Amino acid sequence: MTKSKTKVILTGGCFDILHYGHVYFLKKAKSLGDYLVVAIESDERIRELKGKGRPFHSQKQRKETLESLKFVDKVIILKDKMTHQDYIDLVNKVNPCIIAVTEGDPILDKKKEQAEMVGAKIVQIPHIRTHSTTQISKFLNLD
User: Fold this and answer.
1) What are the structural domain ranges in the chain?
2) What is the pTM of this model?
3) Concatenated DSSP letters for the chain?
4) Domain 8-139 of CATH type 3.40.50.620
Protein backbone atom coordinates (compact mmCIF):
# COMPACT_ATOMS: atom_id res chain seq x y z
CA MET A 1 0.00 0.00 0.00
CA THR A 2 1.29 3.45 -0.81
CA LYS A 3 0.01 6.24 1.36
CA SER A 4 -0.15 8.75 -1.49
CA LYS A 5 -2.80 6.76 -3.38
CA THR A 6 -4.84 5.07 -0.68
CA LYS A 7 -5.60 6.28 2.83
CA VAL A 8 -4.94 3.12 4.87
CA ILE A 9 -6.41 2.69 8.35
CA LEU A 10 -5.01 0.07 10.74
CA THR A 11 -6.76 -1.26 13.80
CA GLY A 12 -6.70 -4.44 15.85
CA GLY A 13 -8.39 -6.50 18.51
CA CYS A 14 -9.77 -9.89 19.48
CA PHE A 15 -13.22 -9.69 17.84
CA ASP A 16 -14.22 -13.04 19.36
CA ILE A 17 -18.00 -12.75 19.66
CA LEU A 18 -18.77 -10.00 17.17
CA HIS A 19 -21.29 -7.49 18.55
CA TYR A 20 -22.68 -4.03 17.84
CA GLY A 21 -19.79 -2.26 19.59
CA HIS A 22 -17.33 -3.96 17.22
CA VAL A 23 -19.40 -3.07 14.16
CA TYR A 24 -19.73 0.56 15.30
CA PHE A 25 -15.98 0.82 15.93
CA LEU A 26 -14.99 -0.76 12.60
CA LYS A 27 -17.43 1.43 10.62
CA LYS A 28 -16.06 4.55 12.31
CA ALA A 29 -12.50 3.38 11.60
CA LYS A 30 -13.30 2.79 7.92
CA SER A 31 -14.89 6.24 7.63
CA LEU A 32 -11.46 7.73 8.37
CA GLY A 33 -9.99 6.50 5.09
CA ASP A 34 -10.19 4.23 2.06
CA TYR A 35 -8.79 0.85 3.11
CA LEU A 36 -9.31 -0.76 6.53
CA VAL A 37 -6.82 -3.36 7.75
CA VAL A 38 -7.84 -5.27 10.89
CA ALA A 39 -5.20 -7.21 12.83
CA ILE A 40 -6.73 -9.90 15.04
CA GLU A 41 -5.18 -11.66 17.99
CA SER A 42 -4.38 -15.36 17.66
CA ASP A 43 -6.34 -18.03 19.54
CA GLU A 44 -3.41 -18.58 21.92
CA ARG A 45 -3.14 -14.88 22.73
CA ILE A 46 -6.89 -14.63 23.43
CA ARG A 47 -6.62 -17.60 25.83
CA GLU A 48 -3.84 -15.71 27.65
CA LEU A 49 -5.91 -12.52 27.80
CA LYS A 50 -9.42 -13.87 28.41
CA GLY A 51 -9.04 -17.32 29.95
CA LYS A 52 -9.11 -21.03 29.18
CA GLY A 53 -12.61 -21.16 27.65
CA ARG A 54 -11.82 -18.56 25.03
CA PRO A 55 -11.84 -17.79 22.22
CA PHE A 56 -15.34 -18.92 21.36
CA HIS A 57 -14.63 -18.60 17.63
CA SER A 58 -11.32 -19.76 16.14
CA GLN A 59 -8.98 -17.26 14.53
CA LYS A 60 -9.96 -18.63 11.11
CA GLN A 61 -13.68 -18.12 11.89
CA ARG A 62 -13.07 -14.63 13.27
CA LYS A 63 -11.03 -13.72 10.19
CA GLU A 64 -13.73 -14.99 7.83
CA THR A 65 -16.48 -13.21 9.76
CA LEU A 66 -14.64 -9.89 9.68
CA GLU A 67 -13.80 -10.32 5.99
CA SER A 68 -17.53 -10.66 5.27
CA LEU A 69 -18.15 -7.11 6.52
CA LYS A 70 -18.26 -4.71 3.57
CA PHE A 71 -16.28 -2.04 5.43
CA VAL A 72 -13.33 -4.35 6.28
CA ASP A 73 -10.82 -4.65 3.44
CA LYS A 74 -8.14 -6.94 4.88
CA VAL A 75 -7.76 -9.09 8.00
CA ILE A 76 -4.39 -10.21 9.36
CA ILE A 77 -4.05 -12.89 12.05
CA LEU A 78 -1.25 -11.93 14.43
CA LYS A 79 1.40 -14.37 15.62
CA ASP A 80 0.90 -16.13 18.96
CA LYS A 81 3.74 -14.31 20.69
CA MET A 82 3.90 -10.79 19.28
CA THR A 83 6.84 -8.74 20.50
CA HIS A 84 7.05 -4.96 20.46
CA GLN A 85 9.29 -5.31 17.40
CA ASP A 86 6.69 -7.53 15.67
CA TYR A 87 4.11 -4.76 16.09
CA ILE A 88 6.57 -2.20 14.73
CA ASP A 89 7.23 -4.47 11.73
CA LEU A 90 3.48 -4.84 11.14
CA VAL A 91 2.93 -1.08 11.22
CA ASN A 92 5.86 -0.57 8.83
CA LYS A 93 4.47 -3.20 6.44
CA VAL A 94 0.89 -1.88 6.46
CA ASN A 95 2.12 1.74 6.40
CA PRO A 96 -1.15 3.28 7.60
CA CYS A 97 -2.08 6.96 7.56
CA ILE A 98 -4.15 6.39 10.69
CA ILE A 99 -4.15 3.85 13.52
CA ALA A 100 -7.67 3.70 14.95
CA VAL A 101 -8.02 2.83 18.64
CA THR A 102 -10.82 2.77 21.18
CA GLU A 103 -10.84 5.68 23.59
CA GLY A 104 -9.03 4.58 26.73
CA ASP A 105 -6.86 1.99 24.96
CA PRO A 106 -4.53 0.62 27.68
CA ILE A 107 -1.51 0.55 25.35
CA LEU A 108 -2.12 3.90 23.67
CA ASP A 109 1.44 5.12 24.34
CA LYS A 110 2.95 2.17 22.45
CA LYS A 111 0.54 2.69 19.55
CA LYS A 112 1.43 6.40 19.42
CA GLU A 113 5.11 5.47 19.23
CA GLN A 114 4.42 3.01 16.39
CA ALA A 115 2.30 5.58 14.54
CA GLU A 116 5.04 8.20 14.78
CA MET A 117 7.52 5.79 13.16
CA VAL A 118 5.52 5.81 9.90
CA GLY A 119 4.11 9.33 10.14
CA ALA A 120 0.61 8.10 10.97
CA LYS A 121 -1.96 9.71 13.25
CA ILE A 122 -3.72 8.03 16.14
CA VAL A 123 -7.48 8.52 16.09
CA GLN A 124 -9.42 7.55 19.21
CA ILE A 125 -12.94 6.33 18.53
CA PRO A 126 -15.35 6.86 21.42
CA HIS A 127 -16.34 3.73 23.29
CA ILE A 128 -20.11 3.27 23.09
CA ARG A 129 -22.16 1.73 25.86
CA THR A 130 -23.04 -1.75 24.70
CA HIS A 131 -22.50 -5.27 25.92
CA SER A 132 -18.89 -6.43 25.73
CA THR A 133 -17.79 -9.83 24.46
CA THR A 134 -16.94 -10.77 28.06
CA GLN A 135 -20.46 -9.84 29.23
CA ILE A 136 -22.06 -11.77 26.37
CA SER A 137 -19.85 -14.77 27.11
CA LYS A 138 -20.88 -14.75 30.79
CA PHE A 139 -24.56 -14.32 29.91
CA LEU A 140 -24.40 -17.33 27.58
CA ASN A 141 -22.37 -19.32 30.16
CA LEU A 142 -19.47 -19.69 27.72
CA ASP A 143 -16.79 -19.00 30.35
Assistant:
1) 8-139
2) 0.86
3) --TTT--EEEEEE--SS--HHHHHHHHHHHTTSSEEEEEE--HHHHHHHH-TT--SS-HHHHHHHHHTSTT--EEEEPPSS--HHHHHHHHHHH--SEEEEETT-TTHHHHHHHHHHTTPEEEEEPPP-S--HHHHHHHTT--
4) yes
Angle subtended by helix axes 84-94 and 108-117, to nearest 10 = 50
- pLDDT per residue, tens digit, the chain (143 aa), is 544 579 999 999 999 888 888 999 999 999 999 999 999 999 999 999 888 888 889 999 999 999 999 999 999 999 998 998 999 999 999 999 999 999 989 889 999 999 999 999 999 999 887 665 555 555 556 55
